[in-house]
Each structure stands twice: as C-alpha cells, then as structure tokens.
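Design job #97: recover the sequence.
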C-alpha cells in the first residue's frame, strides 16, 4: 500500500483545527490564550474567522449536549 486512501470528502485543515479546539476545551475551560493560539493556527491553515467561530460553537454545543445527556440519564446512587 502506498498511502492512505478514503472515499469521503474531508477538510483536513478544519478537522485539525476542530481537534485543537476540543483539546483546548479538555479541562472544561477555553481560555483566552488558547483562543488566541487557535486563531493563529487558523491563520496559518488559511481558515477564515467565520469557520473558526463555527467550529468553536460546534465544540461548545457538543459539550453542552454531553452535560445534558449526563443530567438526564444520571442515576441516583
């Protein structure tokens, strides 16, 4: 095999930035220095600001959905 092949479209630059945002949010906080670093990475990757805001919003929405899921299905022990 000469390389990795896939049959679906993937914007790897956006995917990398999304993963960076998720890692920055890993401790439950998304600090200003982390946001600035993400913005710089986006600039290097050629990702426009509106996409950065959308990716940050997606990560926040996912975290909120996770908290909601846990609250709804958490059992009293």
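Job complete. Output follows.
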């Amino acid at each position: 095999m000469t390389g990795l092949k896939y049959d679906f479209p993937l914007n790897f630059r956006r995917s990398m930035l999304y993963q960076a945002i998720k890692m920055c949010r890993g401790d439950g906080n998304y600090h200003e220095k982390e946001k600035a670093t993400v913005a710089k990475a986006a600039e290097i990757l050629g990702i426009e600001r509106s996409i950065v805001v959308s990716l940050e919003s997606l990560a926040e929405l996912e975290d909120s959905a996770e908290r909601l899921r846990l609250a709804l299905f958490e059992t009293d022990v």
